[in-house]
Amino acid sequence: xxxxxxxxxxxxxxxxxxxxxxxxxxxxxxxxxxxxxxxxxxxxxxxxxxxxxxxxxxxxxxxxxxxxxxxxxxxxxxxxxxxxxxxxxxxxxxxxxxxxxxxxxxxxxxxxxxxxxxxxxxxxxxxxxxxxxxxxxxxxxxxxxxxxxxxxxxxxxxxxxxxxxxxxxxxxxxxxxxxxxxxxxxxxxxxxxxxxxxxxxxxxxxxxxxxxxxxxxxxxxxxxxxxxxxxxxxxxxxxxxxxxxxxxxxxxxxxxxxxxxxxxxxxxxxxxxxxxxxxxxxxxxxxxxxxxxxxxxxxxxxxxxxxxxxxxxxxxxxxxxxxxxxxxxxxxxxxxxxxxxxxxxxxxxxxxxxxxxxxxxx
Length: 362
Prior knowledge:
It is a single chain. This protein is of the alpha+beta class and 362 residues long. The protein has helices at residues 2-13, 92-101, 146-156, 161-165, 188-201, 229-237; strands spanning 29-30, 36-38, 43-45, 53-56, 63-68, 71-76, 81-86, 103-106, 109-113, 129-133, 137-140, 208-211, 214-217, 224-225, 296-302, 311-312, 323-326, 343-345, 354-355, 359-361.
């Protein structure tokens, strides 16, 4: 059955080497699978272009990965060989390798955080100031998916705050959504718990010490964690200085947001009324997907005013009530998915457009 998939991929690509242009590679190629049954996992792929993507990763690994609902098939180019793997079970070392492949190395550097006063539809809490990120770090290419979070819940027995909190609006739990979509209905506390669990699974020192409602970040640990607000904006901008990493505007063919309310008077676009599978749009210049729109992403920081001075590796206010979230979502207007736009909520809050992505210190 894997031979059938390989044949479809080769026809789709015209047998072009996927590593001829590693800078752009191929962000995502969709193919149809009439009916594919993978006996190891006993999962069935129906005829759906939305469920099977070909993700061509770094030339260093020479791996093409077919991803459907948390199932990964690795095709080793030039070796006439195939290997299967799953993030749902199996060797923890293999899971660690696969998780690392889903991370992008973000280089250290200095940038202007916030927005200039000339930027349309900016807010007063975005004063522009110089920030230095002093060390390289890893950031996940995609928002954490339902499939990835499902493994956490299955293995650990964890219950999210949406499931235990009894909120009327949260009657539908996160499990109802497709495995290749961002996990939502997760609070900041849920995200931190996932980070620590994944670190332990892969033999990494957890980044957080959790004691009741108190969470302490050990900045010397290299386990999984949430990005700081500065790291998030730095990675979102990916070297750009415009309102979006796409330039002065972003269309609904470039990101998932409410196209009925475009940015700065631009032409209307599509309102999809829901989140899309991760990686459905082109990556930003540093290879990160869905930094604009799709779902909000929790950050580490307590929300507070920016410093007017230059800063190095800021991590937000020392204490507070609200944690930062960034990026905007499928339900928000264009202005809310700007690189500089800031928002926040209490750590226990969860909603249908709240998710997160991971980083690791190096």
